[in-house]
Structure formats: C-alpha cells, structure tokens
Automatic annotation (TrEMBL):
Any one GO molecular-function label of the UniProt entry: iron-sulfur cluster binding
Species: Lysinibacillus sphaericus (strain C3-41)
Name of the molecule in the record: Sarcosine oxidase alpha subunit
UniProt lineage: Bacteria, Bacillati, Bacillota, Bacilli, Bacillales
InterPro entries listed in its UniProt record: 2Fe-2S-bd_N, 2Fe-2S_ferredoxin-like_sf
Thylakoid among keywords: no
Family matches, as SUPFAM superfamilies: 2Fe-2S ferredoxin-like
C-alpha cells in the first residue's frame, strides 16, 4: 500500500526520483532517496512511530518541521532521530521508539517499595 501524490503540478512527477529500500522494525519498505523518513513511512500507512515514555500511548508525526520531537525513532542504531528531518537513504535501518523508563518514574517506583 502506498499513499502518494504521483503527479504534482509544481514538484513534478514522482517517477523521476530514485527508489531506495529501507527497513522499519525489520520489515522491508521502498521509498524515494532524499524524502523525509516521516514521508516514506506515512506513504506506507505507518503512523505510530514510538510509544510515550510514561504512558505508552502511540505517538507519531505532529509538527513535521522538527520542533516537537514526537517523531523520534532509532536510525541505524542511533536513538532520537527525528523522522521528519531525516532524509531517506538506501539501506537505512529504522526502529520504532519504545517505551523508556524516566528518572522520575524510576525514583517513584523505588520510593514506593
Ligand atoms: S514531527 Fe515534530 S519533530 Fe518531527
């Protein structure tokens, strides 16, 4: 499944762009070199990019301009990459952000015991 604008009156035809492959949570996908990782994932119908650190609620693209940090993913082993600012390249290995403990949360758990 892909959800893309194939012919844009200003940006041109999508077929002019170079196709690349990447993985997201070990599933193989195809995208276009240089498009944002967020756009490539959205085109595949993927909207949940991570889970909130404390509540576990699904999070995804919010501002799409690099301000909110809601789109944090693991890119080639590095945590905290913003999908909306990361250009897609061939062979990129992306993992969704998982729920991480916070220092506040750990402190409360220890205090209750
Ligand atoms: S969606 Fe806001 S920083 Fe990426």
């Amino acid at each position: 499944m892909t959800e893309r604008i194939i012919n844009h009156p200003v940006l041109g035809a999508l077929t002019q762009k170079e196709k690349v492959t990447f993985t997201y949570d070990d599933h193989l996908f195809e995208g276009y070199k240089g498009e944002s990782l967020a756009a490539a994932l959205l085109a595949q119908g993927i909207r949940t990019l991570r889970l909130h650190e404390e509540t576990g609620q699904p999070r995804g693209i919010y501002c799409n301009i690099g301000h909110c940090f809601e789109c944090r993913v693991n890119v080639n082993g590095l945590e905290g990459g913003r999908a909306c600012l990361t250009p897609l390249s061939d062979g990129m290995a992306v993992k969704s952000g998982q729920t991480l403990p916070t220092t506040v949360r750990d402190w409360r758990k220890n205090d209750e015991q």
